[in-house]
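Cast an eye over this sequence plus tokens and walk me through the fold:

***
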Amino acid sequence: MKEKSKKFILWFKETSKRNVALVGGKNASLGEMLSQLSKKGVNIPDGFATTSFAYWYFLKENNILLKLKNLFKKLDTKNIKSLQETGKQARNLILKSEFPEDLKKEIIKEYIYDENGRLIRVVTTIITYDENGNIKSVKRYLEIRSPDGWIKTKSQDIFEELPILPNLPI
């Protein structure tokens, strides 16, 4: 069995607040809530996260890591136009890349399908902030798998007021 740090995906039930470096803060928090609140009777659905290992593997296999490093070397963090343009170029490099076959298969086998074999949906959300730290935009990426295994990516611009949740007793 692979150790957590070498897996492409981790189920929330496998994660906790100690796994932020592997799955990010939101996913680690979901894992923490699942482990702590489920036993107190709070219904927390399980799900999975792609790992930082999968992210670095994706960059390496697409030969874009050096391109991204070079792009970020030119970044002027005090210039908003430079931030916007660099971000746009970085996103384009990633969005134009292909999932390595083994990573794609690992993720697809964890998807949830309906009775007709159609993928329900997978969502990635990217939030951008203005120079004051306020939410500027929210973009949601839906990845859809057709029966022949092809993955389509559709982006959807959304913006919604996100409620501030009280601290949960964990």
